[in-house]
Amino acid sequence: MSSINYSEKIPNNVDLGNDRTLQRALEQWQPNFINWWGDVGPTGSTDYDVYLRTAVSVDPQGWAQFDYVKMRDYRWGIFLNPGDAERRIHFGDHLGEKAWSDVPGEHRANLRRIIVTQGDTEPASVEQQRQLGLTAPSMYDLRNLFQINVEEGRHLWAMVYLLHRHFGRDGREEAEALLERRSGDENNPRILGAFNEATPDWLSFFMFTYFTDRDGKFQLCALAESAFDPLARTTKFMLTEEAHHMFVGESGIGRVIQRTCAAMNELKTDDAATLRAAGVIDLATIQRYLNFHYSVTIDLFGADQSSNAAIFYSSGLKGRFEEGRRTDDHLLKGQTYTVLEVANGQLAEREVPMLNALNEVLRDDFIRDSVAGVGRWNKVIEKAGLAARLTVPHKAFHRNIGTLAGVKVSPDGRVVSDAEWQANVGHWLPTRDDRAFVASLMGRVVEPGRFANWIAPPVMGINRQPVDFEYVRFG
Amino acid sequence: MDMAGTTIFKQHLIDPEICIRCNTCEATCPVGAITHDTRNYVVDADKCEFCMACVPPCPTGSIDNWRTMLRVKAYAVDDQLTWDELPAELTPEQLAADGAAVETGGAVQTMDGALAATAQGETTFITASWGATLPPWSAAHAYTNLYGPKANDKCIHATVAGNVRVTELGRDYDTHHLVLDFGAMPFPVLEGQSIGIIPPGSDALGRAHFARQYSIASPRNGERPGYNNVSLTIKRVLEDHQGQPVRGVASNYLCDLQVGDTVQVIGPFGASFLMPNHPRSNIVMICTGTGSAPMRAMTEWRRRLRASGKFEGGKLMLFFGARTKEELPYFGPLQSLPKDFIDINLAFSRTAGQPKRYVQDLMRERAADLAPLLADGQTCFYVCGLKAMEEGVLLALCDVALQAGLAWEAVAGALKTQGRLHLETY
User: Fold this and answer.
1) Residue B50: its pLDDT value, please?
2) Which 4-23 residues of chain B touch chain A by CB within 8 A?
3) Which of A185, A421, A454, B266 could bond to A408 as cystine, CB 3.0-4.6 Å?
4) In chain B, what residues touch A57 (CB-CB under 8 Å)?
5) Torsion sign across C-alpha atoms A297, A369, A458, A62
6) What kind of fold does domain B8-117 have according to CATH?
């Protein structure tokens, strides 16, 4: 193993070639990662040559090198955004002090927990999506799926690097455990609930990449503010890649809507059954999928009041979204924030200490960002000359974490009785029929330039290649 | 850089219908030209320098949109923020009606032109496809365009701290070593970067002189270590490329400066012709005349590192051509560098009684030592000087590779993609 050329095989900017400790740790871990990829990575993809983007450095030219790659030979690299030796902590109790290049002993356990929780989502999503390649609606979409998969793999590497480099033996054990947990496994599940749900079809996949990867974006943005400089720099670089994942989601749903609208205009109907018979997904079903993924995702931000969130912030481990751009005192002591609760059978607002409500702050930032994209989907409908519109449901709808867990709230924000919930849940969340119908559309279309009937082609290809480019060569 | 109202240019725009507002472009832009509100991400035409850093990271391709516009009528940021879709391309008639000069041939500043200028460190010659457009992996981060027409400060004033002749006296073609001090003002540079000098006064048509570009001859920590100064190597231009007598406006201005004079400077420029900084990296330098400036800078930086005892440098090899020994800048100081530090090869093309020798001749003679360096991924090559030398140097490298049994295409491909062959000729 000593003859590995680290900079070639594992592109990195962390001086891996001269770090014997890190090399040893990775030499142990890397074969297990490859085995994990072989076991639960994309099904049946071993011999494919996929037109993938590989990061070989962090500058604008280096991080987006496109070429055909077999996925198991993908060069999972380790990258930190360029550092600033003078960087200061810009929030919390350590405000103004020098950022940490190593883990302070008193924050070791919390930082490890944050990194492990983030790291656990990366392989989990690969596991969740492993069957999707069998039902890709086009070669273009298949390539995008694989791109996301390998980059989630790289994000796992990024977190494992931090564990190996900064957390000693504990870190190495946590890194191994990241490869041992399995999405949906009863005995050894992934840490967060949403990452144990299967991603059964491409509509779910697009919704997942739009909403759930956006949760990833906000978590990464908050960690990119961290006083622990290696974590901040690692997550900053991950964000560049995360953008592609959200693009796949936003443009994917946009294309589904576009196809549906075209069929609605051709057939001059908005009748769900007629549209389904024509092989497209009616807008009401899309709305129900949206409701589901949105509500499950906003649960990921955690309880609306959390002392952990306050500790993470005050100790400088995790900032707010765009902390550096905010103009308040970056301490937040004595400030308040509005959260929702149920009082007298109705939703009511309550002011709570802002430090304890930072999960809610991040959730609300996420909501603003999500709503903007839904607005762009509506533009597609508007352009087709149709009156229907999609909306995000109320923040209290279908929640399972925090004060609102289990409260029955309609998408428009009314607390409803169990009876009303039962009577309407089929209009609000995807039913078994909806899922069966969407599943029935999932056939494999992989000739270059051809697209499944239920989705429109994209406006342009990847890396300025044509839409009918051979994005995947089947071995 | 044209300030006249009739200039047309390609305005960089983002397609709001395709953009997903991921913020990658804004995070990537080195000059802060991209901004956003809750609705759109937009490019400020006054700030964008066409460096294209934002284009590859964009996940959607929405970043890659261009509209031919009259510069004075460029779409403002506030307008772009209200867009739901991109405006249509203006027709030639619309452009003409807006007042675009009919004869645009000479005045059009196209994106392609700007691109070529940026990629080539703003020299005018677009080099053969062999040269790299990326710096080597261990290059330090280069600050560019801190001062200039599109920066907040249009120029910076430097004080002349020294001006000495570095070629022997008694010749028309004197070359000067000029030291410029920036006092307390920021002007961080790296070896291989260049700066622009704006000569005072105006040309025969009454227009202000445009900036002339010169490579920095001093290392990153100053001509004098720890001081905020840079040095330049200036050759007094007395005839043009065709041999017609012409007094170079900027070079004569610079060569005649006195200590204490102030000079208008823009820059720094260049983000690829940069030296490797990792231990045991080798540097092969091939230059003629004032093309020696960046080589002096890199050599001096390596010399200072070596003197510190904390850096294990690789091999340095220099091929340096001039017409005669007397015209070779820095001839004296070069002779005093230790042989085990740098391998110096001088070629003189006009020494009386001697056959003409060019740098490529020396390179072929030293093939046995060049070949292992060519085969070593730790080696970077830098070529700087007159355009005419470029082809000869590349052919010599090709011959050296072939003689050593190396596949030139593979070697050259690696040199280019790994940012290890840099050409700067004029």
Assistant:
1) 85
2) 17-18, 20-23
3) A421
4) 137
5) negative
6) Alpha-Beta Plaits (3.30.70)
Least CA distance to A213: which residue of chain B?
B22
What average pLDDT is seen over chain A?
A: 93
Asked if B53 has any chain A CB less than 8 Å from its own CB, the reply is yes
pLDDT at B141 over 50: yes
Chain B touched by A244 (CB under 8 Å): yes
The secondary structure of residue B229, as a DSSP letter, is: E
Nearest-Cα distance to chain A for B376, in Å, is 14
| CATH at A144 | 1.10.620.20
User: What pLDDT score was predicted for residue B72?
Assistant: 82
The residue segments making up the domain with residue A220 are 6-473
Task: Report the side by side order of strands in the sheet with B156-165.
Answer: B212-215, B194-198, B262-269, B156-165, B175-181, B229-235
With CA atoms as reference, the chain A residue closest to B141 would be: A82
The C-alpha angle with vertex A34 and arms to A30 and A35, in degrees rounded to 5, equals 115
Query: Of B115, B8, B124, nearest to B387 (Cα)?
Result: B124
Q: Is A31 on the interface with B (CB under 8 A)?
A: no
DSSP 8-class letter at A99: P
Q: B121-140+272-425 has which CATH code?
A: 3.40.50.80
Nearest-by-Cβ selection for A459 from B18, B57, B133: B18
Which H or E run contains A288? helix A283-299
* pLDDT value for B102: 37
Interchain pair A61, B61: CB under 8 A: no
Pairwise CA distance, residues A152 & B147, whole Å: 40
Chain A CB within 8 Å of residue B354 CB? no
CA dihedral angle for residue A377, residue A379, residue A385, residue A387, rounded to 10 degrees: 70
Which residues of chain B make contact with A459, given a CB cutoff of 8 A?
A: 18
The shortest CB-CB distance from A460 to any of B57, B61, B137 is to: B61
* CB burial readout B281-306, b (16+ within 10 A) else e: bbbbbbbbbbbbbbbbbbbbbbbebb
Report which secondary-structure segment, H or E, holds A377. Answer: helix A358-383
Question: CA B82, CA B413: separation in Å to the nearest integer?
Answer: 45
A193 vs B: CB within 8 A: no
Q: CB–CB of B56 and A57 under 8 A?
A: no
Does the ipTM surpass 0.85? no
Tell me what pLDDT residue A4 has: 61
**pLDDT tens-digit map of A457-467:** 998 888 878 89
Class of domain B156-269: mainly beta
A1 lies in some domain: no
Beta carbons of A7 and B38 less than 8 Å apart: no
Q: How many domains does chain A have?
A: 1
Q: Is residue A224 part of a domain?
A: yes
**B210 DSSP 8-state letter:** P
Q: Which is more confidently placed, B3 or A262?
A: A262
Q: Average pLDDT, whole number, for chain B?
A: 84
Average pLDDT over residues A114-137: 96
Nearest to A124 by CA among A105, A152, A150, A102: A152
Domain boundaries, chain B: 8-117, 121-140+272-425, 156-269
pLDDT band at A1 (very low <50, low <70, confident <90, very high): very low
CB contacts < 8 A, A to B, total: 65
Q: Please report the pLDDT score of residue B388 as a whole number.
A: 80
Q: What is the average per-residue pLDDT within A175-189?
A: 95
Assess A371–B contact: CB distance below 8 Å, yes or no.
no
Q: Tell me, what's the pLDDT at B112?
A: 39
Q: Per-residue pLDDT tens for B237-256?
A: 777 766 677 778 888 899 99
Cβ pair A243:B59 closer than 8 A: yes
Angle subtended by helix axes A358-383 and A213-223, to nearest 10: 140
How does pLDDT run across B159-184, given as a tens digit for each residue?
A: 999 998 887 765 566 888 999 999 99
